[in-house]
Amino acid sequence: MHTKNQRWNWMFVPEIAEGKCKQCGECVDICPADVLVVDNNETVVANPADCLGCESCVSVCPEEAITVKEV
């Protein structure tokens, strides 16, 4: 049984396939936790610990360049 204040022992981390990503910024715009940024024409995972695991970035990516891994 889980208690109300129990913390989970996993986190989610987005991974970007550099060869597929076209830096369109769709993932950056949709992310509710501001995990991704486009910096110097490269999409990067700037705040991986903030990822909610919602996979909004995965669903919006036109190049299918993003996966979210549970770690």
Describe this structure in words.
GO terms for molecular function: 4 iron, 4 sulfur cluster binding; metal ion binding. Residues 12-41, 42-71 form the 4Fe-4S ferredoxin-type domain. Keywords: 4Fe-4S, Iron, Iron-sulfur, Metal-binding. With 71 residues, the protein is of the alpha+beta class. It has a domain at 23-70: Alpha-Beta Plaits, CATH 3.30.70. Helix content is 14%, strand content 25%. It is built from two helices and four strands; from the N terminus they run βαββαβ. It has a two-stranded antiparallel sheet. The radius of gyration is 13 Å and the shape is globular. The two termini are 22 Å apart. The mean pLDDT is 89.
CATH-derived architecture of one domain: 2-Layer Sandwich
Strand line-up in the sheet with most strands: 1-4
Strand content: 25-35%
Q: pLDDT average, as an integer? A: 89
Characterize the largest beta sheet: strand count, sense, and whether it forms a barrel: 2 strands, antiparallel
CATH fold call of one domain: Alpha-Beta Plaits
- So what's the overall shape? globular
Helix-strand category: alpha+beta
Query: How many strand units?
Result: 4
CATH class of one domain: Alpha Beta
Poorly predicted residue ranges: none
Through-space gap between termini: 22 Å
Helix-strand topology string? EHEEHE
DSSP helix fraction = 10-25%
Q: Count the DSSP helices.
A: 2
Rg value: 13 Å
Pfam families: Fer4_21
Keywords: 4Fe-4S, Iron, Iron-sulfur, Metal-binding
GO molecular function: 4 iron, 4 sulfur cluster binding; metal ion binding
Protein name: 4Fe-4S ferredoxin-type domain-containing protein
